[in-house]
Amino acid sequence: MTIETFESLSLTLGVGGLMLYMVFIMYKLARESGAGRYGTVMIFASLGLGLVGFAAKSVIQLVIQV
Questions:
Q1: Residue 35: pLDDT band with limits 50, 70, 90
Q2: 63: which of 31, 32, 36, 46 lies 20 to 30 Å off by Cα?
Q3: 3-class DSSP assignment, residue 34
Q4: Strand, coil or helix: what is 61?
Q5: In the chain, what are the domain boundaries?
Q6: CB neighbour list of residue 48: distance below 8 Å, 6 or more residues apart
Q7: 8-43 burial by CB neighbour count: b if 16+ within 10 A, else e?
Q8: Long-range contacts of 1-6, Cβ-Cβ distance < 8 Å, separation of 24 or more
Q9: CA atoms within 13 A on the CB side of 8
Q10: Mean pLDDT for the chain?
């Protein structure tokens, strides 16, 4: 395994882990605040939009490179 492969893999896994942790934080925030169904959807939609944008950026870069 080359250094470039290791760096790419560890970056992907590290950022992915942080994204999963952020989803857990959003869930915990919705649960502890008693947001209800609509509030929970709004929390995930508003805060999750940044996660979707980051993932879309990676997908767009892959599509452009091909």
A1: confident
A2: 46
A3: coil
A4: helix
A5: 3-65
A6: 23, 26
A7: eeeeeeeeeeeeeeeeeebeeebeeeeeeeeebeeb
A8: none
A9: 6
A10: 89
